[in-house]
Amino acid sequence: MTSELAATHQLVDAAGVPRARQMLERARWASRAFATYDRAAVLRIAEAVAEVAEAKAQYYAEWAVRETGFGVVEHKVIKNRLCSRGILDTYRDHDYVTPRVDADRKMVEVPRPAGVVLALTPSTNPVSTVYFKILLALLTRNAVVLSPHPFARECCSDAARILGDAAVAAGAPDGVVQVVEEPSIPLIDALMTDERTDVILATGGVPVVRAAYASGNPAIGVGPGNVPVLVDSSADLRRAAEKLVSSKAFDNSILCTNESVLIVEESVADRFQREMERQGAYVLRPEERDLVRAAVFPDGQFDTSVVGKDAAVIAAKAGVRVPGRTRILVAPFELAVDEEPLAHEKLCPVLGMVRVPSVRRGIRTAVAVLRIGGAGHSAVIHSKDPANVMAYAAAVRVLRVTVNEGGSTGSAGFGTHLAPSMTIGTGFVGRSSLGENLEPKHLVNVARVAYSTDPAEVLPSYDGLVPWAAPDGPVPPYPLASNLVPDASRGLTPVSTTPTAARGEEASELREELRRLIIEELNTIIRG
To answer: What is the pTM of this model?
Structure first.
């Protein structure tokens, strides 16, 4: 790198801190305004955003696959729709705004939004996660600043801008949705560590989650998956095979809830293998398995270049010929031990398979798989025997066990009655602060107004008392200093304009803050 280029990078990085502060100040202003909206206004905004998001589902699915090279367009369309209209329909009748009165407990509960949400989004499920986190923030009257993964930066930034524009057009405050278009380490670090960030939603790899937890701000992070799936002798083998193969093939296995290791009872293993083959699985012979293992785990480490790739592409990379209709590759191995790469998480349509003599041994094998990775995440079982299901659920160290359904969508709450989510909490065992699927309630605290238990103290009537109201007239724009104009996502840019009139004490304070930030930015550049 030339000295001139290095100097340029230093200037860009140095500008990250004041730029982050500008974005967060704008988000804080928006969150304070948004916190005064009533439920009708909030639903109107969420409806408008979901409508735009759903209409763009195909467009962004194609863009995401084109930009990242991961997954399957038609499956990403499904996820984008589930995380737009699907999320709104799920939570439309939930009220995260209106105070609730509990007469029996003589208590009034007042919902209080988090404020400013910093949402980190992954490359594997990029736009669907952007949709999901924006709608969760809007349903709970929070402002959200999105930081997309660099591999999916363009499609995610565009989606966030479009949805943010829709929110403002429907009456949301200016700046309620912002996105980091040009991420840098100083910028992201500044966003995570600034006290104006009220909560971080970290969906991504282990380093991202650890950085969020180390930021000093409240954070909700999740852990990696490594999902075992047990098929016992009582299972409906045809249905189980259809569910399993479809789940493993869904978006080429890039959901962390996809099945990683199949554990099948020996007495039905041959029959189940034939059923999987009818569904498009190709069961590798020992020499083929070794070739695929070497291609997917060169030197024992997972090759990220195969993430979200078609089964046929992976087979060709390994030098294995498979039928054209192959949807997944099934790789038999003997023992679920750490030294066996196929017992680890595989974000591609390669499914490890272990035969076991009994359900008891199968449960022990599933426990071993989760000891290797995926603690707290998810497990799947196909069984008609509730005793087996209970024994499995009690033994495996996960917080969601999907029964007779595909893990990819089932554990994510699509196809089951779990909360539909793109962020899967792994709880204490998985080193996560979240023990369930992320949903809107996790972005709201509740202030409780508690009356005395003394029978002489009577709870008065709170009928019709709602402290929030719909905005009275057009929502005012973000109050700027006279020498600033808003930029869609990069914060604020100094320009030469005609001075504007002051807008009260809050606007005056904000102008002083912006002036301080500009001086700090100039000093930083000079020092660089």
So the answer is: 0.88
